[in-house]
Design a protein that fits this description.
Elements lengths: L14 E3 L6 E3 L1 E4 L10 H13 L4 E3 L10 H13 L8 E6 L14 H15 L4 E6 L8 H13 L3 E7 L3 H14 L3 E5 L13 H8 L2 E5 L35 H16 L4 H9 L7 E4 L4 H8 L9 H12 L2
Parallel strand pairs: 3-4, 3-10, 4-5, 5-6, 6-7, 7-8, 8-9, 9-10
Antiparallel strand pairs: 1-2
Helix pairs in contact: 3-4, 4-5, 5-6, 7-10
Bound molecules: NADPH dihydro-nicotinamide-adenine-dinucleotide phosphate.
């Protein structure tokens, strides 16, 4: 059956301005790192994309290496786009990245101009697109001169392969340097993509200040700590969970007693607010004015609905914030 999106889709989530740019992003965006690869169900993937778009999620985040196998999440998404979204391309912000190992030899990893341009050309083929909206350098490269990487990003925009560029996982100092070069080149950095959640707060240590000063937006990945800040692990590690599968991005060892204790206590607070733990975790990352969007992942459509519902109750009182602080810092 052909897909017809929900008419009320733009009344569901707030849209936040991305730094000092012309782009607004939904407060919740969907990433395709897990559950969209060649080994996952295409039907479930399609349902998740439909559910997300119906709920006003206009932004879908990919990378060259998402799968498994690497590249297959872009293929899956490209397939769904061509089947169901022909009329809606201009309503979507699609991002991809390069920076982690993608093909053998010295030109398939890190941050050379050779790697970034070739990788994006491959991504565009897999996605079946002429351009992506945002292209990211996925991680800092300690060896390639920053000027080369930034010039490659500038070239990528000027050549029409991407409309905007972003950086991911750069620390505060690296971000400041990258932003300066990009400004001089005339292709300002649109957005930064760091990890951030109640269990991982490194961006509060200087990065948010730089982003605010430079007018760069911020989309935080893994706001649910890969599922640990949801109801998923409150009573053990279920079979159908990321921690139970063999890919190793979240191991059983990471789901420690301390993490479960914190999750349980936070879950009580979430209940008092009439929310799920996932919703509280999303409201908490969005409390920072620098954070444009919470970039979630999902393994089924209901999780996406649950996460989007967070935006019905984003306000955290000072007292709630203090209680969360105590829970997060107690040993
Ligand atoms: P999350 O922290 O949102 O974790 C997603 C997982 O949490 C889901 O797969 C699911 O686990 C569980 N979950 C989600 N919603 C619910 C819910 N409502 N109730 C119960 N469980 C829920 O984010 P990810 O780690 O998946 O990362 C999100 C995106 O961020 C990625 O897809 C990618 O686009 C980006 N990313 C970027 C990186 C970078 O280096 N730039 C690195 C990592 C991610 P389960 O599968 O067990 O059901």
């Amino acid at each position: 059956m052909s897909y017809v999106p929900e008419k009320s889709r733009y009344d569901q989530v707030p849209y936040n301005r991305c730094g000092k740019s012309g782009i607004k992003l939904p407060a919740v965006s969907l990433g395709l790192w897990h559950n969209f690869g060649g080994v996952s169900s295409l039907e479930n993937a399609r349902e998740m994309i439909h559910t997300a778009f119906d709920l006003g999620i206009t932004h879908f985040d990919l990378a060259n290496n998402y799968g498994p196998p690497a590249g297959s999440a872009e293929k899956t998404f490209g397939h769904i786009l061509s089947q169901d979204f022909n009329y809606y391309r201009d309503e979507l912000i699609i991002s991809t990245k390069a920076g982690w190992g993608m093909w053998p030899g010295p030109y398939g990893d890190f941050g050379s101009r050779k790697y970034l341009v070739a990788s994006l050309d491959q991504s565009l083929k897999r996605l079946g697109l002429d351009y992506v909206d945002i292209f990211y350098h996925h991680r800092p490269d300690p060896e390639t001169p920053l000027e080369e990487t930034m010039r490659a990003l500038d070239y990528i925009v000027r050549s029409g392969r991407a409309l905007y560029i972003g950086i991911s996982s750069y620390d505060a100092e690296e971000t400041k340097k990258a932003a300066k070069i990009l400004k001089e080149l005339g292709t300002p950095c649109l957005i930064h993509q760091p990890s951030y959640s109640m269990l991982n707060r490194w961006i509060e240590d200087g990065l948010t200040k730089v982003l605010d000063h430079e007018g760069i937006g911020c989309i935080v990945f893994s706001p649910l700590a890969q599922g640990m800040l949801t109801s998923k692990y409150l009573s053990g590690i279920p079979e159908n969970s990321r921690a139970a599968n063999i890919h190793g991005f979240l191991t059983k060892e990471q789901v420690t007693d301390e993490v479960i204790h914190k999750a349980k206590t936070l879950n009580e607070l979430a209940k008092e607010r009439g929310q799920t733990l996932a919703q509280l975790a999303i409201a908490w990352v969005l409390r920072l004015p620098e954070v444009t969007s919470a970039l979630i992942g999902a393994s089924n459509p209901d999780q996406i609905k649950d996460c989007v519902n967070a935006t019905n109750n984003l306000k955290l009182t000072d007292e709630e914030l203090k209680r969360i602080e105590v829970i997060l810092t107690e040993k």
